[in-house]
User: Fold these one by one.
Assistant:
Number 1:
Amino acid sequence: MAKAKKESSSAVADPACAPEWSDLLRQMIFIRRFEEATEREFRKGKIGGYLHVYIGQEAVASGIISALDDDDIVFCGYRDHAQALALGSDPGKVMAELFGKGAGISRGKGGSMHLFDAEHGLYGGYGIVGGHLTLAAGAAYALRYQGTDRIAVCYFGDGAMNIGSFHEALNMAGLWGHQGMCPIIFIIENNGYAMGTSVERHSALTDLSARVRAYDIPTEKVDGQDIFAVRGVADRVVRQVRETGKPYCIEAVTYRFSGHGAADLLQPYRAKEEVEKHRQRDPITILRNRLSEVCGLSDEDVKAMDDWATAEAAKAVKFAEEAPLAEPHELFEDVVAEHGPRPVRESEHE
Amino acid sequence: MSEKSYRDAIRDAMMEEMDRDPNVLIMGEDIGVYEGTFRITAGMLKKYGPKRVIDTPIAEAGMAGTAVGMAMLGLRPIVEMMTMNFAIVAADQILNHAAKVRYFSGGQVDVPMVIRGPQGAGVQLSAQHSQSFESFYAHFPGIHVVAPGTPADAKGMLKTAIRGKDPVIFLESAALYGMKGEVPDDPDFTVPFGKSRVAREGKDVTIVSYSRMMQLSLSVAEKLAKDENIECEVIDLRTLRPLDMEPVYASVARTHRAVVVQEQWKPFGAAAEIAASITEACFDDLDAPVYRVTGEDVPMPYARNLELLATPHEEHIVRGVKKVMYAHG
């Protein structure tokens, strides 16, 4: 899927009607259909391990990533399918990764939690909550050290804010920002829950942005269900971070409609009514309604997008299904790049 | 060749590589303005400036994790741990991230980074500052584990580490920092990983070791040759991962007896892996069970007399050699 193109919105009369917004709507519908397909395939037993889908949070991935340049880079936690798709990763390869096939985006060695596509700027989904924040801060330092104006974006959930590496990463980013050496945007995807533990139960101070300001990193909160709001903040912040080399944090207040993972069926930590209430603020519906009201987007237009998205998701599943298994020799590849004999004698696989 | 201390060999390696490649940088606690707890980094801030010699907060996970990110983007960071004991704080960054990202990305990134610092006992630093970590790290695929025992190896292997494509745990023996030895002057002198070395030839017993215990084994070998007419072959493993056992097997095929010497605790230690490998490969050659000389299985005590009791000394190695020769008694 092509990355939604960043365009100058001043070129059209009503900026909300720039073609980019319908591209973003199409992208978000596609992410939704793709994630629904992964849930179905998981239940069929085609996808193993853990599966964390992004349903309900689409505006946070699409709104931020569409504001980036092609050579900017993104780090995520394990809820990473949407970021890969928004960055332009091949959906077939992403699905093949979930199916554990050699044609997967990480050659079948990462799975859902470790999508990786350096060519499109995705420097990994990571499975240890909060562990990747330090990596992203170091990567941002490297981008500046090399004299580029590229920036790094680091997604993480509210649940990542209580682990040591969060604090160490933000403190170092704050310090390096004083020298203009840390062009990074931290994105708190505040979906209200650290797995099944609500913000009130996991964070002594529930104003998450305030905790970031303690590291001298400016922060602002945005409605993560409204892509106009997300993108508006992102455009300004991306420009600022690129210019100054200083970190910035955006707290996107959002909600995941699905369970924490595909196995989280009962969801005893939240009431059905609460989920239902949040479903009324579906980011796709919000964007769609706006485009209908202001720009005359028709139901047929939306149906065409949806049909395309459904077909593309089905194509990805088909590609994944038909792709061959990972070759046994892959087992021993990419452990390390070089140097001599391996410590344990290899088995018959090779 | 020049005579250099182990400490200076390490500093020379880093500075020569920083001169050679602008992507090499170093970070750590008090390595710049303070010039390093063990003065390994003395003079470096002045020469290279704060962008390349980064004084960090006391935040080992932050240091190691940012180094992973830098390495993924093409830099070659060196992280100085004030002691390797503190690196446990960064275990997630090292073992879950540095060691894994090449694999789970399907080989999309190199992670050229070095985590180096001193380890080991001997100067009354007690339980939290005297440990040895080679088996801890060597258990994990995805990293290299290096334990040089001479100034030349310290320099040559650190250069290999810095020039490589993978994360390297570079374990320095704090007790060897002042030791001097001949070091080649060639700025491109490197020592490859995964090449064990016969440090002393002998026909009677094979002693396998690395780092400071290899030096101790050498002096025991000299004494046994002189006093008891026992000729020990001493093999310096140099790297624990990759582990090059072929010279050990070749030696045991001649001597039929092996002693493994390590400073760390006996259970699940490096010597256990080495002894098991010898047994697997050389069972028919062995005339005695492989013997392990190790530290005592206790947290390191502070009191000098107790600390001496807790660590291996020459007499322990002598006892091991005689044991496998059935010569004690």
Number 2:
Amino acid sequence: MKDQKNFVNHIRPGFVPSGALSVLYTFCLGGLSFLAFMVLAVTGLLLMFHYQPGESTGYNSILTIASVIPYGGVIRNLHYWAGQLMVVTVNLHMLRVVWTRSYKPPKQLNWLVGVALLILILFLDFTGYLLIGSQESGAAATVAVNILDLIPGLGAGLAQALFGAPSALSGSTLVVYVWHCVALPMVALLLQLYHFWRIRRDGGVRPL
Amino acid sequence: MPKPLNWTRRAVLRLAWGGIIAASALTIEPLVKYLTSKEDRLGSPLVEYSKPLNVNSDWQTTAKERVWVKEDSLGVMAIVATCTHLGCEVHYYPEKKEWLCPCHASIYDIEGRPISGPAPKALPRVAVERKPDGTLIINTSKQVEMGTRL
Amino acid sequence: MARSPIKHLIEKEGIASILFIVFCTALALKFTAGVGTSNLAPSVSHAVAPWIFGPFQILLLYLPPWIGALIFPLLMIGGLAALPWLVDYLGAKSGLRIFMTLIVTVLVLLIWFIFKEFWWI
């Protein structure tokens, strides 16, 4: 309980350094990335009610959501665009951090967390693309599996763990679905909360 | 005498909250419709059609599961009016003898073969059987070749 | 150091959030997300990657897979992750230089990809 309060106090302290208020310093990019993540979580949850992973069911349920289910198209579009915008805001956020040299000690650990988050976001983007289950997604999944197979020893197992056994005509598998909808968002959320807590621990958003 | 409007920061923020709550309220109806939609539930694949069909009559809709039926000199056939591009429901226009998709403007000829637009394949033909009393039973889960007749 | 009450931060975050959500909704209402090609359709001759992975597709087109898909991305990630420590060795101004080198490399590949696919269509 005490730790919980401690966490909330770090995210929402009574006072913050005045530098954190300058929109022209941060451009709100980190916060907007988190907002996009939240939009993705809500719309993604809604999409899960009508999506069925699988070689042919994946693509068919996407078509059903996009053209038959009431408001399914809008929810899917929102999920798509929030995802595209998140990749943009995350990259601009990183550019801003480099520009203001906010990776310098004592913030180097948070920089590493940020790099890990970037990789997670890109992988989320990729698995989301596979879940469309179109021919193109099948091609992308096949390429990804073949690339992982290049890693001696580990490759084949890694490909199975990350993508299951996608066919050349559809990237939609149960394994990809679980990574995209549950495992990766969970890890990303935990890392993000740590990322925000760390900002306050390292002295808050301010010019060093 | 009406109270003069005072655009304090507090008043503007209260207005913003009102706007957010109103916008959220607008999402309730779409969400309920989305979550309660049964469109992706598998219905029975069997569709009945009991009205009489004339030889060389044009396509007649069964009004169920997008199935249309037609009889020509060779026999009875059934077609499913689902666009092969993205699954929208296509409509038959007897005056043009064409099927048109409202979503992306695919056009099919009278036999359901794609003429123009993004549709990759012909409209699917499905199996037809006749019960002793003359009612047609169309099995939408069983696709057949275009030339097949009952 | 000057400090300000958190409510001023929350106000700005709120305004930015509303603008972002309105922008996102407008995009969603105006532009429909693609669904690619049906896996029942005749196979497409050329599968284009989504733009985010365009740089990858260009690399894989011209380099052997183990360089383009393993070594190169690992170098990028390694370079990014090591940035705070590289700066210690190479001087304070090198951070932006290293990052810009990485970003410009990716952007050049992305623009290359866009032009290539543009002409393909």
Number 3:
Amino acid sequence: MIELRGVTVRYGTTVAVDDITLDLPTGKIYGLLGRNGSGKTSLLSALASYRRPASGVVRVDGADAFENAAVMRNTCFIRDTLDANDSDKVRQLMCFAGWMRPGWDADYAAKLLDLFEINPAKRASALSRGQKSAVGVVLGLASRAPLTILDETYLGMDAVARAAFYRELLDDYLAHPRTIILSTHLIEEVADLFERVIIIDRGRLLLHEETDELRGRGVTVTGAAAAVDTFVAGRTVLGEQSLGGVRAVTLDWRPSAEDVTRGEAAGLTFGPVGIQDLFIHLTSPAQRLEATR
Amino acid sequence: MSAGAALFRVYRPILLPFAGIVVVVHAIITSIVASHGEMNFSMWLVLIGSATKYWLFVVGIMLVAMQLRQFVTNGVTRHEFLAAVGAFGLTMSASFAAAVVLGHQAESLALEAFGARGPDYPTLTLGGMVAEFGHVLPVTAGYFVSGGLIAIGFYRWRAWIGLVVMLAGAIPAAAADGLLGINEFGDLPHRLPYAAALAISVAATAIGAAAFHRAMSDVPIRRTAG
């Protein structure tokens, strides 16, 4: 179990993470969502002991995590900027990780470098933005650390590379179960990977739920525009899309069986809500007050 | 692999070429100078005596600027890294001090063999070698600690605080060099009795090392740009 108790991270007078308390059962894939500047990276930095919280404590399996050799050895934090010296060659980065990481899988790292078409002889300074991200992904996955934290590691990666990343992440997670925390802005792309979703906003914890529960928190109603408008009148609308005479509206509402029957009788169909729609709704300025109640 | 072993392996490919280059440069320059007449000073003390302390100074900086993040991102705690840095710094300072003394003696014998050693050349007795080692070691250690202190000042705090730390950080190197530094003629400084000079130098280096340890023990790991 990973426990955060009253974790606060400050930069001078700026409070980046504000008194967050959170329990994270291990062996799951978490999605950490938040707007720019919401405190995601600061929270992850505290979790990975990159930064000591101004107050509060992070515990892993009951032990304080900060400067705990056993915990740090089992934690791999990959940031959006590759933590490497410009003069280091990719091969050297892999070699060094192999020296220090007890679970390092060199063959898997080589396979991933091949998959992402990274030349191991290249220096970090010669890599493109996307290639640096791919090297970060390789370091993160091949470390097989029991706690793997990937903070927007997709930056600069093209769609093909991102798809390969998600596929490898899931395959390797299934083969070697561990705790993975993914911080991302590309919510719809990776939402299917998440078992739990954590949303923070302005440094505060907004929501921590099982993904399925979160999806069940809302509903998407699709059908003829007039029928949809009639059905959703008076409900909280998270988002809507129209194409011709068809409208799809996402609602922050759990319909009862009678509601669904009534809607279907009117020619409407019901589907799960998108995580991104919920995220936008919960973190948009107008909803903050309501969401935190 | 332990952090200490990894640190030595990281620096091995840097250290060996450095040692090779300075030895070759010394041999070439000494040959040129000796071909113009007898030498009454030690070129080894001029070149290698300086190169070793400045190399350790630069390594002290690099350990903070480059290796700290490299190690922590690979699961090493700051305290494990500090222990590795301490072992590395002590080993390298002692090795370099020994290299300065032994190289000085080797240069002396080589110049004598080629008839190029002048009457005022600083020859070494066994006691002189021990004394020279006792002077060089605190200097190399002082420079190493100063490098680390100056780097952590800029790494941990804002630039203007870093500047203040830089001034304080220079004290171990300045104290050691000023009180114990040997010149190219092998002259031992006599500003203070050796025991007093050594005590002041070691105290400055130890305080510097303690300050370095404190500043490093919970320093946030900065990200790279881009």
Number 4:
Amino acid sequence: MTTRITPLMSARAITKQYGGRNGCRNVSFDLYPGEVLCIVGESGSGKTTLLNTLALRTEADSGALHYHATHGEMLDLLAMSEPRRRLLMRTEWGFVQQNPRDGLRSGVSAGANIGEPLMAVGARHYGQIRATATQWMERVELDATRIDEFPAAFSGGMQQRLQIARNLVTGPRLVFMDEPTAGLDVSVQARLLDLLRTLTSTLHLSVLIVTHDIGVARLLAHRLMVMQGGEVVESGLTDQVLDDPQHPYTQTLVSSVLPV
Amino acid sequence: MSSIESRASDRVFIDNAALMLRAVDIRKTFTLHAQGGVQIDALAGVSLDVEQGECVVLVGPSGAGKSTLLRCLYGNYLASSGSIAIRSDGHDAQHVAITGAEPHDVLRLRRNVVGYVSQFLRVIPRVTTLTLVAEPLVSRGVAEDEARERAAALLARLNVPERLWSLAPATFSGGEQQRVNIARGLIAGHPLLLLDEPTASLDAENRDVVADLVIEARERGAAIVGIFHDEDTRTKVATRRFELQPPLRHQAALH
């Protein structure tokens, strides 16, 4: 009665702790192709630790993590060698940082920031790389005539869009995002959210996104995982979790949002 | 639902080819953890079958659980117990049990089978009215141009002025937003429609347009469950009325 699609990523009992506390404990989920899964929770709930562990930026203490690669192979991510991990990150994944300065290279131009990941996967033709970078600047609504300016010359919201272009230019299948709209003005947030919403659906991206903003979760996510104290306390369809929260913590989280 | 039960309800959907929805003994209790675990019973055992070409109008006093029932049927609220099965578009089975379904199955069902019109439009910043209304068609694979043409035709029929189509509906009046919401809910021709007071903030003329659209949907074979606040619309669209009574409310927590 249910459709049997192979998950893109499968996590089972993922645990990562710092000195026996904090971090995340015992997290399991399946992420399907084209699905946007939002991890919500307050500061210190372990959501960023979880994201970093899933993205192989920090080593998991225990658990199992599998990924269904383009060529059909099911990869055991935790057992994989470092060079293969690097290759996978370069070719199939993206990671959008909360602070665009962490995800961009400040010493090279906007165009180079977009072109670099392409060169890392083998692009060599300068004209083509520049043309692609120009297209992507337009796609994320940046003024393409500013292609030779350094990231510092752009506003925070523009830098975030530049970081998104840098991450999507190689056509990844899975993108991790850590609070991509935090620290931006509300008016700038709306533009970024609309852009993310459009890009994820037109590119059929799978996204794991961490946020503490319920509004962001409602707009972008198909599905939510609510974290408290390092554990997932509730998960399900986005509107169901937000409109009919079951867990005491989720009820508090949802009822704490100020009505507009 | 066990596979045996699942097969048994598959039989029901095979034996009755017109059956779109079967809800059996739906109960819904809200537990308010922040308020000492108070429990509020909203639905106390509701069973309902809906067939193609039927428009079942929910009636009952305020607090009888009419909206709660619709939201349970849409998978927006989790039923506390009971089962809800909806005829599926898939080839692998006759139905999907909304109760206990995986999120992606519910989403697929919403894309292809179940349409829902709430009282309020959820505005998405920067997304234009025309795009918003065309979206359910685009997500079902209709070409962008055709989807926009059909969206324009429906908006025109609902008397939404053309100068508004290229704007995001955030600044529209309540009635205009309501009509955009109806257009978005009805455009894809879902075989099962759940309507929660779609005419609440409309004037008489627009109420009639909506009633006509609901009747047309019914006549092309859609199964409809709706709440309508005015008797006039109810009389026009209903093929059957379904009475709900408020359960005993506000039971003290058992601790």
